[in-house]
Amino acid sequence: MRVIKILLVVFFISGGVSIIGAQELLIKGSVTDGDGIPLPDVNILLKETSLGTKTDFDGNYFINAEVGQTLVFSYIGFSTIEVVLGNSTTLNITMRSETSRLDEVVVIGFGETSKVKLTDNVVSAKAEDIKEIPTSNFQTTLVGKTPGVQITQVGGRAEAGVKIRVRGVATITGSQEPLYVLDGIPLINDYEGLGGSPINPLIGLNPDDIESIDILKDASSAAIYGARGTNGVVLITTKKGKLGKTKISLNSSYGWSTPTNRREFLNTAEYVELFTEAGLNVGFTEDDMAGFFNIWADNEEDWRNSSVNTDWQNLALIDGGVQNLGVNISGGNAKTRFFLSTGYNKTNAIVRGNRSERYNLRINLDHNVSDRFAVGINSSISKTQISRLANDNQFATPLQAIAQIPFTRPFSEGGIVPNGNTLYYNFLFQEFNADLNANIWRNNLNLFGEYNVVNDLSFRSEIGYDLNNQTEDRFFGSLTEFASTNGFANALSIQNEKYVLNNYLTYDRTFSKVDFDVVLGMSFEHDNRRLQNTQGQDFPSDDLQTLASAGEIVGGSTTKDSFNFLSYFLRANTAIANKYLFKASVRIDGSSRFGNENRYGTFPAFSGGWVISNEEFLFEDKTLSNLKLRASWGLTGNAEIGNYASQSLFGAARTYNQNAGLSISVLGDPELSWEKTEQYNFGLDLGFFENRLNLSVDYYVKNTEGLLLNVPVPSTSGVNSVLRNSGDLENKGWEFVLDTKNVLNENFSWSTSFNLSTNKNEVKALPNGADIVSFQNIVREGETVSAYYLVEYAGVDPENGDALFYRNSELPDGNLDKSTTNNFGEASRIVTGNPFPTVLAGMTNNFNIGQFDLGITFQGQWGASIFNGGGQFQSSNADFFDNQTRDQLNRWQEPGDITNVPQARLFGANGTQQSTRYLQKADFIRLRNLSFGYSFPKEITKKFNIQRFRIYLTGLNVLTITDYTNGWDPESRGDFITNNNLNPNLEFYSAPPAKTFTLGFNVDF
Fold first, then answer.
1. Rounded to whole angstroms, what are the CA distances from 864 to 45, 141, 424, 735?
2. Are 606 and 595 contacting, i.e. CB atoms less than 8 angstroms apart?
3. Can you give the residue ranges of the TonB-dependent receptor plug domain (predicted)?
4. 111 within domain boundaries
5. Same domain for 73 and 157?
6. Is position 898 within any domain?
7. Where are the beta strands (DSSP E) in 512-667?
8. DSSP 178
9. CA torsion sign, 293 to 298 to 302 to 308?
10. Rounded Cα gap, residues 129 and 597, in angstroms
11. Are residues 839 and 721 in the same domain?
12. Beta-ladder partners of 663
């Protein structure tokens, strides 16, 4: 009986539980994304049933369910979530984005595709990859994240230009810059500015407006842009409004900057010791040297007692700061989507007197007029104001102040007026009695309409407009180097505008297991440029700085030029059973820049891929989730040579009696054509463990034919050379990309992206095989473009302190004579270095730990050397009175000394000639970006109607590991003519980049 009673109790209890479990509950809650933004239309299903619901516009839902049942939440682009129900009637869900590497959308020019169907080599960076990096230009946000792409900012100024080289250098005298395309419209990218110090033409673009950047690297992808694809194509896509509740985002940050490096120069005591010794070594007496010193000292105690010890470097390089503020509003419904943003950036550079301010406004609007017809507009306007020292260019920079003698005072008595009694002109006069102010208005507009002719066929028309309006006013007051003219002023005005018309049809259809799409279209571009420069002098007052106050207009000029492009293009893609991929494209480009006989060029491309992992014998493999082979071939061109290079040009001239006349200035070539680049690319994509580990390997060969070079002609023609297609060049290399999701837990995730690329550059052919020598560089068959061509420094003779050089003359057996000489004239120049890196690398690690996030990016370069053009003055063992780097104290002083610094000899030219003494490897590893953030829990932020609130600390150029000591930084470059490869990697008192830390916050409402 006891057993029966127990069984009855168990039965009733279990029956009661069963009855309770069978009761229906009303489950309610909300569904949001990782940023706390409500997600509408999320599918919610009861697992193993047909019952379900969807979230409303605000992300809320209601559903009847039973305890123990499973709710399945699914939404396009997000990870599916399954939740087993308990007794709680409230269930809030946060969905995480899960765009796998293979499902990522890639912009490819006049269309887009997914990585799984991609047969080309395209590298992509999304908004989350470039956000919150404290820099005033978007190009440098890509550093370390784009394999095969070298990105270098020229100098440490706020507005400095940026050099991007895609898969090496494919030209010598043409532009090496890639083609930039913003929302389908090619951009103006011409460097302009007074004094030979160009301003980054794309500085007006706001990085916060960018949704993605896709770089087309191989010819198969870039050939859709034909004559301008050789140097790569950078496709910039701005943010658009998304379906859902209106979202307001605020981003604000403030930071501080310092130079990445400061060099060590002599103090007063060291300077006096070194230069006294240098004078005595060549026959001067101590009294002679005292006489020299007294010329620049206010009084003798300044140098005898070291009572004045000026650090001129600290006057040129200062602490800077960065301020950013941005607000954007986005949202929309099924009919209309919008994105509105405004931004402000203020950058005080680390170079004295240099700063910039930028104001941005963007409106992107998409509207569905009907089910078949959609229209839209992408528009932006920006104003950038730049101030810098009036004489801050590649030949006169504030950093040349380091040459000043340390016992000279920067200011005269009282510390108000700069001291005029210095070895060289005191640059501080520029700060207090001169100005250079630039104003740049940049307007971009793209109006488009798209009509679905039938279900699979659409027609799109785009009208684009790009305006770059730049004015510069430069004034030198009566206390500057223009004192004899009572001041001098320039007024520069440049208007460059481009009109673009794109019309194309897109046919996209799936036939059984075949996906097929084709694009057919045309493009027309018209570019106008007008420049006006006027000069005046003799101003009545330094407070009156416009040319209207000039007593005399001493110069002026106006130029106008224009060019057109007319293009037709066709591209077809086929994917068969998601296994066999084929793509073919052709573009016909016509340009007014080239001769009548070669005005049109044809640029075809082909590529294919085999997704082996989708074959039956691998489809069920649990380890290998992706295996794809890729191959491509294509032709691209380079048309960036100037607008009238194919035509004979005449310029104004004065005859002997001052009558107006004409003289020939350019001898044209009617057969002039594009530089053509043929490129092969072979690739392998591997994915393991459900694509948690992805590896891509690419090998490319890039051959450029018909290099545009100035070929000598008889001077009886009226000119010395003519531009012709003559010469060949080759680039080849490997690229490796490894992406891993190391840990994927709810409270901890860790992902890594590593890339490494190599490049070997070689000149294959030149006109008549003749060398092209330009200063310390040479273009020679069989060598790298613009290889260093220098006398080889051999150190110091330990017996007498003479600088030694290797003779390097050719011996009868073909070897070089490695004996040494102290006579520089007896030494021959040899090819002795590469100005371009042979290896590039980058690695990014992203961590999410609870509410914390951490991002770390390293970059590295190997193989390149830098020639320090200023080293002949600043590291010259006291050859002249310029202050010296501290390593010059290790000079030879007595027989038996072993050192690399020759004996100090004033005016002795002991080893100061152009030689490998001033050439050094510039290998480095840099902690490029560091970002650490904390997002407050949503339970707290929702109390204040805030979807997300995050604070963060970011760092730029945080740490640099390098053996480079010749200059300030291994990435410092003189901003000599930007589009000239004859003298690359030359440092000439070049400012280092800035090390910047910022504190900021993000708020989403």
1. 59, 22, 33, 18
2. no
3. 117-233
4. no
5. no
6. no
7. 514-537, 552-576, 580-591, 600-611, 624-638, 649-654, 660-666
8. P
9. negative
10. 46
11. yes
12. 651
Dihedral through CA 214, CA 219, CA 222, CA 224, nearest 10?
-140
Q: Which domain holds residue 670?
A: 139-260+318-391+427-792+827-876+912-1004
Total domain count for the chain? Answer: 2
Torsion of CA 909, 911, 914, 918, to 10 degrees: -130
What's the rounded Cα separation, in Å, for the pair 395 and 14? 91
Do 779 and 632 reside in the same domain of the chain?
yes
Q: Could you tell me if 147 and 29 lie in one domain?
A: no
CATH number at 40 reads 2.60.40.1120
Q: Is residue 542 part of a domain?
A: yes
SS (HEC) of 855-903: EEEEEEEECCEEEECCHHHHCCCCCCCCCCEHHHHHECCCCCCCCCECC
Q: Are residues 60 and 148 in the same domain?
A: no
In a domain, 285, yes or no: no
pLDDT of residue 287: 95
979 or 408, greater pLDDT = 408
- Per DSSP bridges, beta strands 820-821 and 803-806 are antiparallel
79 plus 144 within the same structural domain:
no
Model pLDDT for residues 35-64, shown as the tens digit of each residue:
667 777 788 888 888 788 888 767 789 898
Q: How far apart are CA 145 and CA 151, in angstroms?
A: 10
Q: Looking at the structure, do residues 551 and 656 belong to the same domain, yes or no?
A: yes
**Per-residue tokens: 102:** 């293979």
d(CA 672, CA 725): 6
How many CA within 13 A on the CB side of residue 558? 2
Instruction: Give mean pLDDT, residues 730-737.
Output: 96
Please, are residues 780 and 786 in contact by the beta-carbon 8 Å criterion?
no
**Nearest C-alpha neighbor of 264 from the set 306, 314, 332, 222:** 314
Rg (CA), the chain: 33
The average confidence (pLDDT) of the chain is 89
Examine the pLDDT at 460 and tell me if it is beyond 60: yes
Q: How far apart are CA 139 and CA 840, in angstroms?
A: 17
Q: In what order do the strands lie in the sheet with 865-868?
A: 919-921, 865-868, 986-987
Residue 642 and residue 499 in one domain? yes
* Total count of residues recorded for the chain: 1005
Angle (nearest 5°) at CA 793 between 791 and 797: 135
The pairing of strands 865-868 and 986-987 is parallel
The average pLDDT across 736-760 equals 93
Q: What letter would DSSP give residue 370?
A: S
Question: Six-digit token pair at 613?
Answer: 């992992």
84, two tokens: 């087993």
In this structure, what CATH number is given to the domain that contains residue 336?
2.40.170.20
Q: How far apart are CA 505 and CA 507, in angstroms?
A: 7
Tell me which residue has tokens 């279900």. 455
Q: CA torsion, points 447, 448, 449, 454, in degrees to nearest 10?
A: 180
**Spatial distance between the Cα atoms of 444 and 185, rounded to a whole number of angstroms:** 9
Local structure of residue 992 (DSSP, 8 states): P
pLDDT at 654: 64
Chain centroid offset of residue 643 CA? 26
**Confidence check: pLDDT of 977 > 60:** no
Asked which of 68, 94, 120 is the last residue of a domain, the reply is 94
Return the structure tokens found at 345: 């950036």
Which of 341, 94, 132, 344 has the alpha carbon at shortest distance from 240? 341
Distance in angstroms (rounded) separating the CA atoms of residues 821 and 827: 7
Q: Is 710 helix (H, G, I), strand (E, B) or coil?
A: strand
Determine the Cα–Cα distance for residues 73 and 33; give it in Å rounded to an integer: 12
